[in-house]
Amino acid sequence: MTGEDLQAALDGAVVNPTWLADALARVQASPAAIAGLFPAVGRHCGRGPLPDPGQELDGWTVDDAARVLLLTALPLRRTALADAAGALYRYGDAAEKRAVLRALPRLGIGNDGVELLRDAIRTNDPRLVAAALGPYASQLDDAMWRQAVLKCVFMEIPLSTVTGLTGRADGELARMLAALATERHAAGRTIPADATALLTKLTGGWPAESDHEKEAD
Amino acid sequence: MRIFDPHIHMSSRTTDDYERMAAAGVRVLLEPAFWLGQPRTSAESFCDYFDSLVGWEPFRASQFGIRHHCAIALNPKEANDARCREVLDLLPRYLAKDGVVAVGELGYDSMTPDEDEVFAAQLALAVEHELPALVHTPHRDKKRGTERTLDVVKESGIGPGRVVVDHLNEVTVAMVAGSGCWMGFSIYPGTKMSPPRMAAILREYGLARMLVNSAADWGRSDPLLTRRTGEAMLAAGFTDDDVDQVLWRNPVEFFGQSGRLDLSPVQPPEVTFADNSILRGGG
Hints:
The complex is a heterodimer.
Chain A: H1 4-10, H2 17-29, H3 34-37, H4 41-45, H5 62-73, H6 78-90, H7 94-103, H8 114-122, H9 126-132, H10 142-155, H11 165-168, H12 171-186, H13 193-203, H14 208-216
Chain B: E1 3-5, H1 15-24, E2 26-32, H2 43-54, H3 56-62, E3 67-72, H4 76-79, H5 87-95, E4 100-107, H6 113-128, E5 133-136, H7 142-156, E6 163-166, H8 173-179, E7 182-186, H9 195-205, E8 210-213, H10 225-235, H11 240-256, H12 268-280
Parallel strand pairs in B: 1-2, 2-3, 3-4, 4-5, 5-6, 6-7, 7-8
Helix pairs in contact in B: 9-10, 10-11
């Protein structure tokens, strides 16, 4: 990826564009410099939402886009690039980790970043779990992907953040959602409306009792 | 009463404490890196701890609208274990981060040559990263430890206005007052200061460059003693504005020197999301 879409989305949105241009030049000349620059992006570029993200960058912040741009500017390929992304993730705070997760499908590293996704899904941080379910989640095996979707339901992360949800959701995910709904209903609780809607879509209308319960609320 | 607790080890506290602190007026806090009780034996173990100071703890604090900042360092006690020394090489990664507003806790434990070396090296890092430094004074041989601390600070070249010397008491306050460094007091049952004694020190030495903290940790301690100190100040005749200076404006001024202090309200969506995951207790 060339990062042209990121450059366009960042145009006029960065607090200190000179800093960003300088940082890009520095990581191109000396890849190790990214260790000190990557954490500092929020302070110099801003942390607000991108003003005009388009569909591809929906939900991204300015620091997300600037960090991904820095990562894609590294003059590294494949294993070396995956290692650099891994180190930034390993030592990153939540904002840095989220940016690495968002960058993964743009790095041309095949499935070398899957372990980072798995780590993110193990966290209890909704920012990371949501970012892990972007386009790169296509690299997850089905079992892990279903667990991650179910975790979104638990954490009340909107299912609209899961890329390719309806295309990949299968009978096994429907079974897991139905079991969760049953367990919740037994305890007098519900599952989120978007999970009910997905379940209904997957099973052709079942379970009716969850709709009744919603009306009763 | 708005409170900024400039020294508290939240990793050792429960989520209930965050809730009680928020109810008592704590809006912002600083968690310095320190010893966990159980000695660590590798740098990787420190990394996991530092990660929690820039990750899990700010996230947990956000549930209750509290802004969490931290100070990062290799503490003097563990500076004596050669297996932990490579932490110094990892510090620059962490000192670059948003939530890190100081280098600390530094200082002495037993005043060994290893502690000298690590203390000086980290003051140099504070200068390099343009961060203030949080320096504690030892439990044992406190007076001599404080004198030696001030000498090392002076030799390092860091401005005294960018250093807080902590855990002071009636015996050590005067020499720090004369040094130009900030004066930190830990209101901690039994071993350190009490709220009425603190009010008396403020009466004698004034409010400038004074920081009051709970230093609550895994010991018998109380995260609400900042609030109790504010109440003791009012009972001793100080005004609401005096209390605000000591419990809010002073720490804001000191740690604001980092240029990274974030006092904006915690974003509601973060609270909502995180609340769900933490109240559920694991997901």
